[in-house]
Specification:
The chain is built from 16 helices and two strands. It has 275 residues and is mainly α.
């Protein structure tokens, strides 16, 4: 894989691409060009966040992830910045294809939260660290896609809350293998603050006491969300593999993304079945 392609971390672009396409089907019951546009915008925003993160963390990556392109010297900082700017410009141009202001505003909010996550102010604050990722990857994408097709209502809000709690509960898995480096640079991730074992226990509690109740309560507004509560079970199981490295991270982190895609898939299938 080329260094520039590794810089955007292609696997992490799967969830936003699926979010755009599957959530478009969920919101509208059809698959047209807007679904592709939504998926590309979300994927590009994710890619920009990945490139920005590696630019900011290039010294940290030399310690914890020396195989990354910037850390190895395969890509220069100026090239990475240029790539990041191109990605942002293309995503902004795609936003112009959207037919109303609200989805554009929500897409810009996703961009700001994704880029803002990489600031030292956010990375060194535990609450902001967790919330910025949970908002940009969990709360805002369903609202963004839904707003392309129809006004935001209780269905959109309740779905966004469920996705938010899923990301909030499991996104700290991405930091488990980076604990020592994060502590060295003063980054206050959940594993760096609580330790890995206590973080895993807290994530399990959040799945049971936050994600599952959110599915049940939000399911009173939109019934399919109730059935998504069963995802807490595989979520709990995958946390057993938080120490098992896979690619750049661990198996629990991979399953976190697959779980998010499963939520999108279930909602889109339900929409197709009722129309």
């Amino acid at each position: 894989m080329s260094p520039l392609l590794r810089l955007v971390r292609p696997f992490t672009l799967l969830a936003p691409l699926m979010a755009g396409i599957l959530l478009s089907v969920w919101a509208s019951g059809i698959l047209d060009y807007r679904a592709i546009v939504a998926g590309l915008i979300l994927s590009l925003l994710q890619a920009s966040g990945q490139v920005t993160n590696q630019i900011v963390d290039r010294e940290l990556d030399k310690i914890v992830k020396p195989y990354r392109p910037l850390a190895r010297g395969d890509v220069s900082v100026s090239t990475a910045v240029a790539l990041d700017m191109v990605i942002i410009i293309v995503s902004l141009l795609l936003m112009l294809l959207l037919e109303s202001r609200l989805p554009i505003m929500l897409a810009l909010m996703i961009m700001l939260f994704a880029l803002g996550y990489n600031t030292r102010t956010v990375r060194c604050n535990l609450v902001l660290n967790i919330m910025f990722t949970s908002i940009s990857r969990g709360l805002l994408p369903p609202l963004f896609v839904y707003s392309i097709f129809r006004p935001i209502d209780s269905t959109a809000l309740s779905t966004a809350i469920v996705c938010f709690t899923w990301v909030l509960s499991l996104q700290p898995t991405k930091d488990i293998l980076d604990v020592e480096g994060d502590r060295m640079f003063g980054y206050r991730t959940l594993p760096a603050v609580l330790g890995v074992d206590r973080s895993i226990r807290l994530m399990k509690l959040m799945l049971v006491l936050l994600y599952t109740p959110a599915c049940i309560v939000c399911g009173t507004f939109y019934t399919p969300l109730v059935f998504l509560s069963v995802l807490a079970v595989p979520g709990l199981v995958t946390l057993k593999y938080a120490y098992t490295r896979f690619s750049e991270n661990n198996i629990a982190w991979i399953c976190f993304y697959l779980g998010l895609c499963t939520i999108y898939l279930v909602l889109s299938i339900h929409q197709l079945l009722i129309i």
